[in-house]
Amino acid sequence: MTQYTSSLLTTLHDRGYIHQITDESGLDALAQKEIIPGYIGFDATASSLHVGSLVQIMMLRRLQQCGHKPIVIMGGGTTKIGDPTGRDESRKMLSDDEIDTNIASIRKIFEKFLIFGDGPTDAIMINNDDWLGKLDYLTFLRDVGPHFTINRMLTFDSVKLRLEREQPMTFLEFNYMIMQAYDFLELSRRYDCKLQMGGSDQWGNIVNGMELGRRMEGKSLFGLTTPLITLADGGKMGKTASGAVWLNEDKLSSYDYWQFWRNTQDADVGRFLRLFTDIDLNEIARLEALEGAEINQAKIILANAATEMARGKEAAHSAEKTANDTFAKGQSGADLPEYIVDNDEIALIDAMQALGFIASKGEGKRLIKGGGAKINDIAISDEKHIIQRDNTTIKISAGKKKHGILLFNN
């Protein structure tokens, strides 16, 4: 079924969010006649989410835009266990205070994308530790345990792949899928939540929650997953040579965030405009049809729209101006990343590493030998080049797209 009658599934389909739906005709009909509370769960393992989580955040935004209620579940409880999906190692255990601090920081991200409040379609954020932390273990095992079989749990990719790689999985982690299933049941009880969404790797967990709701309370629940978002060259979304593309500004400058989108591959521009901006679909069709150098204008529009949504209009405008000054006019833009040197000198290769341009000195040496390292737009070929104290602004460039400012502490 690809022709939908509800604005929700039509929007999700046309913008490329749908991978699997448990009962698409049933969900489509329900979305037409009532407000659907739907949720997605997020980890609280760091103080910020990164671009890899953005498609899920945008799903909640689309849900609200179509007249339904987004529920953001912060995994304060499940963070204490850890999702085994795709991992060979157990997670570092965080304290309650660390988890609470992370949740408070992450909330700032969602406030940029969603409207929170007490209205019927206003978003709410909930910590699943509110109920998971109060569960009586024996009662939980007696009431919920019989609805899960080890045989079935071993068939899920998150478990099967881990075991095939002969990596250990603790009993603690094995409980994660039961806890997530219980989240769906609890949300259906408290908020009449009828839809869980997530990435394609969460399909098994989502189905578990639906089945638990049906078996324990006869509830009719729905699940929807998004496809794995990869780049045109097969790379993973949100991963760069210098690290993760964080959504919080205290973890990544707005200029670097803007540049991430500006550097989108030609083949990804249309898809990313549909997924990560609110630009009209007809306009996106026009933009993705651009060829040659003109496609760069579409990339700038993508970068501006994505940055404005996450960081605000002023940040997007400032980032574009800095990029224009840096690339078009050869100046040093004000928003470029900076590194302050406390000594009287620093090796060029150390400066590039401090600015996050290279992951290792070996990479830096190759870059310098290849003519890709510049100081104030002048190529440097000596891999041992030393930059002496200077009272002027020094621009460091690594390749064509990475630029930063070196300052000496007075």
Envelope shape: globular
Unreliable stretches: none
How many strands, which pairing sense, and closed or not: the largest β-sheet? 6 strands, mixed
Can you give the helix content as a percent range? 40-55%
Number of helices: 18
Oligomer: single chain
Strand content: 5-15%
Distance between the termini: 66 Å
Task: Compute the CA-based radius of gyration.
Answer: 24 Å
Across the major sheet, the strand order is 1-6-5-2-3-4
What is the structural class?
alpha/beta
Number of strands: 15
What's the pLDDT, averaged over the residues?
86
Please name the defining characteristics of this protein.
14% strand; five-stranded mixed β-sheet; 18 helices; single chain; 410 residues; six-stranded mixed β-sheet; alpha/beta; globular
Q: How does this model look, in words?
A:
This protein has 410 residues and is an alpha/beta fold. The chain is built from 18 helices and 15 strands. Helix 12 crosses helix 16, helix 13 packs antiparallel against helix 14 and helix 13 runs parallel beside helix 15. The chain is globular, with a radius of gyration of 24 Å. The N and C termini lie far apart (66 Å). 38% of the residues are buried.
